[in-house]
Amino acid sequence: MVSSCLSSGLGFWGPSNRSAIGARVCLEAGGRKQYREVSGGSNFGCLPFEQHFGLAAIEKIDALQIRWQSGLIQRFADLPVNTTLRFTDGQGTWEPVYGEARCVEENSSVA
Known about the structure:
The protein is mainly β. It has strands at residues 4-11, 24-29, 32-37, 51-56, 61-67, 73-79, 83-88, 94-96. The chain is globular.
């Protein structure tokens, strides 16, 4: 069984907070919502700035909403799955980070 996913790389390219720490992300797909908050780490180690959303068999992302630290709220619709996208505070577009799908088939091993 193949699983779908989306990884979002958030970036604030201004003079401070280049890693988008504090940004809140809500992904809507398949009638469900997933939430993430970008954090630079925890008591148990470092957490990635890139946010990963597992989608199982869902093949379409209805919307991704980002609430930036600046207070700006942006909403993106009809995003592709099985890729990593970069979103930048204040820009109304996104860009792919890698050229190919980055999800791994369930129950398979990665060499």
